[in-house]
Amino acid sequence: MNADDVRKVLLLRAFESPTTAPWTEADATWASAETARLEGEAAAPDRWIARRADIALQRLAERVPATTTALAADRRADLAWLLVPLAFACGAAIDAIGPTGRLNIIALPLLGVLAWNLAVYLLLAWQALRGGGVGRLGGWLHARVMRVVRRGGAPEALARYAADWTRVGAPLHAQRLAAVLHAAAAALALGLLASLYVRGLAFEYRAGWDSTFLGPEDVQRLLSVVLTPALTLTDSVLPSAEHLAALRFSDGPGENAAPWIHLLALTVLLVVLLPRNLLVAWAAWRAQRLQKELPLALDAPYFRRLLPARHATRIAVRVLPYSYKVDAALQAGLQAALERALDADVALQLADSLPLGGEDTLDDRLAGIDPHTVLMPLLALTATPERETHGAFLSALAARRRDDARALVPIDESGFRAFDEARRAQRRAAWRSMLSDLGLTPLFVDLASGELVAVDEGA
């Protein structure tokens, strides 16, 4: 799916999971029927899902005009390219030579620009080596869509869309932003060079240096590091320490700045302009690829329920009980409850119970699991919810989820059935409160019977 299709799919899902007014179950049924009529059941799953979202949003936009604005919110990101000419103007406006007609060969801004760019390259290399990737950029997009939410209707659904698109579209947002920032850095350096040459045409500038802490030998060592590539390409030789000593502005007027400007300009070309433009091309290429095909997991229960029967497959679900042992008598009930909740056949994988505080071993527990397997916790209503233990486990598991579904948290009531309904309602409320703060949906089940006891909206 391309990025535009993914946006539409996520926006529709925000209104369907859970069903949020003015969208209704009847509308969802109509959208599926219309898609089946136009595409047929032989259509590929991604095409079927994307076409259904396109059809449904035409009707939804008539009822919630803010959906159209929300879809277009990040398309205004092209305005970020205005940063490039602004950076060029800033570079050109920098008084690199100074009002006295002097070019200090060891002072800012030229050497500062070189140092800053080298630091950025080191940071990028470090991130690449540690596998940092693009990170989770895109908070600016979330804020933009949330402004739409405050203006229009259905704020809860649009807020869900903002969060989902910020997360799913983060790789695309990151590459687009990287392209703009690299281009702006190159434009700043180019503007600085343009300023040097334009001013040099009208005036004679003198090159020299002054320093409180550096002597001629120190300056020579510094310039040998900075200017070596340019000196090599131009077959030039760095002046001796004695020559540099004579260039101190405190001892004389310096010398004509033209050779130094050429050397510094060539250094900026090699260190800033060429690498930054390569990085722009790389980021733009990756952004274009992501625009054409943005990953979205269609094996989540929401999408499985939408696809025609020919696409239906058995869902592999790995259940991780936390501080709760599921005996053999309850496993059949767990299977039945999950199949009712997911409306699909379930291939159940029941892991050993994880002890309190055992979330640090999750990586070992999940090693080698098929990436299409749905990860699902299992808790007991007999336990009082604690953020330090249950909350930490659920957060750790959510960070490792591979599927794109909103996480369901089954909570078994079979051991709590002896208490009256008031006590059960009180305990459910406590679990709902904690899970809501974590962005999770409780699914209260009775594993003794396999029944769904209390299905919250969204489950």
What's this model, at a glance?
The chain is built from 17 helices and nine strands. With 459 residues, the chain is an alpha/beta fold. A six-stranded mixed beta sheet has the order 5-4-6-7-8-9, sandwiched between helices. The chain has a three-stranded mixed beta sheet with strand order 1-2-3, covered by helices on one side.
Q: What does this protein look like?
A:
The chain folds into two domains: 78-292, no CATH class; 313-455, Rossmann fold, CATH 3.40.50. The longest helix has 35 residues, at 258-292. The chain has a six-stranded mixed sheet, with helices on both faces. With 459 residues, the chain is an alpha/beta fold. The chain has helices at residues 3-16, 25-39, 45-63, 66-72, 83-93, 110-129, 139-151, 155-168, 170-202, 216-233, 241-246, 258-292, 301-306, 328-342, 362-365, 387-400, 421-437, and strands spanning 102-104, 206-208, 255-256, 315-321, 346-350, 374-380, 408-412, 441-446, 451-455. It is 57% helix and 9% strand.
The overall average pLDDT, rounded, is 84
Q: Helix-strand pattern, N to C?
A: HHHHHEHHHHEHHEHHEHEHEHEHEE
- Overall geometry: elongated
Q: State the helical fraction.
A: 55-70%
Please give the count of helices. 17
Percent strand: 5-15%
The neighbouring-strand order within the major sheet is 5-4-6-7-8-9
State the total count of DSSP E strands. 9
**Main sheet, how many strands, which sense, barrel?**
6 strands, mixed
| Rg, alpha carbons | 31 Å
- Regions with pLDDT < 50 over 5+ consecutive residues? 134-139
Q: What structural category characterises the helix and strand content? A: alpha/beta
Q: How far apart, in Å, are the first and last alpha carbons?
A: 26 Å
Structural domain count: 2
